[in-house]
């Protein structure tokens, strides 16, 4: 499946809410765009977890372009799509590769967000591009996490650096980058233990891990990816701001987008934090990761609404 059909399948739940509800606004021949209509659209957009600012920006745009006119569904959808694309615009390349030497990617997030799965997916993607990969098992608290990552490394043909339980994760990060340098490995992906954004000591630890990577290879980490569970909707936005402060996040991997009707949170993250969504997780297999492309995301989100009226 190409990106479009995969993301369309992944966005089924969000799309269902959005498309059915918007279509329902147009039961008769066209609809007058007045305050009542705008209020109804506001409610629908809000339910997809787009957040206050994005919802207001979209409603305002519809008002500005169409207020006082009787229009068809397509015209409203066109305005929504154009504005959404504008709100989410971001650089095309998901990963900022190092100019030379290994590219170092640090991965963080709350417990159960989908970090390990996302690391496996990223490793799989890099391997399919012919890149060599080393994983750093930085979750030294949980033996199971190390085990799981080791299984993925074997399966995907990646190297792995592990350390005895209780080793400081910054040490594992440092050693992983050292190995990448020594063995001329293209990409080092450093796992970190899950933590809550309210645990200030653990958040400070992220700053230390980051510093250790920079010490092992100045200029690294090249990417610090925060894995967010899309099903948490707006909660993800507050998580992201804390992680961004502590770890200097460069982008988001939005996991579990397939399991939620809250896919609109993508818009909110971009708007409120300025952080690009770099990848989306669309299932549990190591192949279920897609680089995020805002234009295709928007087209996929609204594809059913137009198909139904075609
Ligand atoms: N449907 C779906 N499930 C996912 C996705 N990503 C991860 N999962 C599932 O979410 C659960 C948690 O994923 P993990 O990768 O173990 O999460 P983690 O953040 O590493 O967890 P901790 O190490 O406990 O902090 C697992 O059951 C995964 O299979 C996704 O994109 N879609």
From TrEMBL:
SUPFAM superfamilies: Domain of the SRP/SRP receptor G-proteins (SSF47364), P-loop containing nucleoside triphosphate hydrolases (SSF52540). InterPro entries: AAA+_ATPase, P-loop_NTPase, Signal_recog_particl_SRP54_hlx, SR_rcpt_FtsY, SRP/SRP_N, SRP54_GTPase_dom, SRP54_N_sf. One of its GO terms (molecular function) is GTPase activity. It is an enzyme of class 3 (hydrolase). It comes from the Bacteria. The keyword Disulfide bond does not apply. Keywords: Cell membrane, Cytoplasm, GTP-binding, Hydrolase, Membrane, Nucleotide-binding, Receptor. One of its GO terms (biological process) is SRP-dependent cotranslational protein targeting to membrane. The keyword Manganese does not apply. GTP binds at residues 109-116, 191-195. Pfam families: SRP54, SRP54_N. It catalyses: GTP + H2O = GDP + phosphate + H(+). Part of the signal recognition particle protein translocation system, which is composed of SRP and FtsY. Involved in targeting and insertion of nascent membrane proteins into the cytoplasmic membrane. Acts as a receptor for the complex formed by the signal recognition particle (SRP) and the ribosome-nascent chain (RNC). Belongs to the GTP-binding SRP family. FtsY subfamily. This is Signal recognition particle receptor FtsY. The lineage of its organism: Bacteria, Pseudomonadati, Planctomycetota, Planctomycetia, Pirellulales.
């Amino acid at each position: 499946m190409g990106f479009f059909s995969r993301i369309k399948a992944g966005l089924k739940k969000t799309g269902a809410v959005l498309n059915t509800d918007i279509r329902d606004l147009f039961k008769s021949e066209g609809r007058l765009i007045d305050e009542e209509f705008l209020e109804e659209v506001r409610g629908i957009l809000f339910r997809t977890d787009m957040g206050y600012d994005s919802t207001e920006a979209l409603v305002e745009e519809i008002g500005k372009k169409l207020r006082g006119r009787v229009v068809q569904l397509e015209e409203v959808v066109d305005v929504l799509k154009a504005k959404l694309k504008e709100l989410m615009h971001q650089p095309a390349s998901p990963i900022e590769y190092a100019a030379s030497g290994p590219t170092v990617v640090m991965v963080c997030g709350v417990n159960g967000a989908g970090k390990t799965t996302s690391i496996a997916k990223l490793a799989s993607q890099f391997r399919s591009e012919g890149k060599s990969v080393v994983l750093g098992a930085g979750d030294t608290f949980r033996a199971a996490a190390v085990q799981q990552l080791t299984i993925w490394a074997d399966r995907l043909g990646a190297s792995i650096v592990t350390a005895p339980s209780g080793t400081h994760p910054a040490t594992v990060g440092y050693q992983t980058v050292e190995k990448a340098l020594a063995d001329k490995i293209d990409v080092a992906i450093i796992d970190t233990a899950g933590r809550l954004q309210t645990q200030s000591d653990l958040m400070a630890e992220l700053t230390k891990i980051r510093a250790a990577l920079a010490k092992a290879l100045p200029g690294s980490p090249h990417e610090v990816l925060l894995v967010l569970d899309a099903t948490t909707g707006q909660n993800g936005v507050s998580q992201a701001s804390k992680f961004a402060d502590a770890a200097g996040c460069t982008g988001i991997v939005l996991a579990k987008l397939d399991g939620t009707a809250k896919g609109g949170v993508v818009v909110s993250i971009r708007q409120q934090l300025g952080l690009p969504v770099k990848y989306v997780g669309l299932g549990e297999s190591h192949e279920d990761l897609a680089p995020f492309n805002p234009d295709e995301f928007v087209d996929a989100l609204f594809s059913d609404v137009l198909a139904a009226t075609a």
